[in-house]
Amino acid sequence: MTVEPVVHIGARSVRGTAAEGVRVFRGIPYAAAPTGADRFAAPRPADWTGEFDARAFGPTAPQFDLAGIPGLPDLSVIFGAGWIRGEDYLNLNVWTPEGAAGGLPVMVFLHGGSFTGGSGRDVSYDGTRFAQDGVVLVTVNYRLGVPGFLHLPDAPDNRGLRDQIAALEWVREHIAAFGGDPDAVTVFGESAGALCVGALLAAAPAGLFRRAIVQSGGASQAMPVAQAERVTAQLAGQLGVPATVEGFAAVPDETLVEAVMQLGGAPFEPTADGGRDPLMGLTKLGPVIDGDLLTEQPVDAVRAGAAAGVDVLAGSNSEEMHLYLVALPSPETTEPLLQAAARTLHPDPAALLDAYRGAGRGSTPLELLSAIGTDYMFAVPTARLVEAHAPHPGGTWRYEFTWRSPGYDGTLGACHGLELPFMFDNIGRVDYGVLDVRQDDEAVRELAARMHASWVAFARDGDPGWPRCTPETSVVQRIGAEWTLTTTADGPEKELWQGIR
């Protein structure tokens, strides 16, 4: 009979499960349930007492169920399984080795999902392999959508980020009881979670984490208040409520979720002063430069030394936008659509397209749009973050994930989210469906083991296993069927993004 593990945290305790040499504690509330008007307040301390039953995952933040959209493939391995209802969704999950005596490195994962979906309980983020390799792995749920990121003039902005800070503070206070070292915390995230990590490099109180990993994100995509106000006005108009906490507090979560889905995905047109949508229309909600938690683009704060002393590993995938253009239902990528997108993203679209064609980044409109979008949203912000951090204390490393999925007759490529099965090393444990990562391929399993080991080594020792970047040279580790180093990952076409945000 398996003994259920119990961990004491102060006057409280949590009861979990044990299997495969790993103890798991699920759904632990790290902050009070955000209900009513409190959905738009700063997080408050969790108010539970006694012993908490952490044997089953807890609820998730309100979000749309993507499975309900006709014609959409199963994207649960990337965007999560949808809304699991319940008030106490500000919770986290802990995987830790059985018999852990203490002092283990800790990794805290922030999930992606366009700031409107996903959760730390999603099967893709199972932390068993990390725990088996001597890491205490934590996944976090945080507020999404309107409660998490809508700008309201009478509420604190960036509530989702504030939740993440509260979770990191919980880790700081309690993770030693689970065998972790509170002074050896790595915060890491993918997609929207990576953008959150980029923001936390600028906004989190010093000492909450020692290392950070930014996967397919960056630190230069926070929204100006003017753009956030446009989103708020649009949502308030859809709902017929005042753009205030009182107005939105009267709207149930179901209606807020539906309203966000109706916002649409087109990027905002450039403003009169040349400002562009930093999120490229992939989402209308995200971190806001609020003058409080974020006083400027996070990358500028990093450049000024806000993350000095933190080790940073950052990277992106070679063909991020293939997920959106190949796997998701979307209009055919024609030459007129490509031209229109280029006009939205760059003040000189003709020069931009000429540069990408000249660099061999694509021969069809889809390939060119994917390359341009991949650079605008992911690769260029990654390079900016690395360049900003490299002069400061704390090492800086960069990677590019190049392994190409055979999905969609080989056209899915090295798309957004594809590195997750390899980084978590869950191939064989999880069916990755649309990503077409085949568990019976020995080379795939070897790549997963090697990439996962690099992430573990970074969390444990502060070195993923390749040369760091310096102010003079940006060394990029290409991770794929072959592992190669390059110092020329940023071709001349990327120079056209200088000064464009």
UniProtKB/TrEMBL annotation:
EC number per UniProt: 3.1.1.-
* Pfam families xref list: COesterase (PF00135)
User: Which segments constitute the Carboxylesterase type B domain?
Assistant: 5-481
**Top enzyme category:** hydrolase
Is the keyword Kinase in the record?
no
Keyword set, alphabetical order? Hydrolase
**Family per record:** Belongs to the type-B carboxylesterase/lipase family.
Name of the protein: Carboxylic ester hydrolase
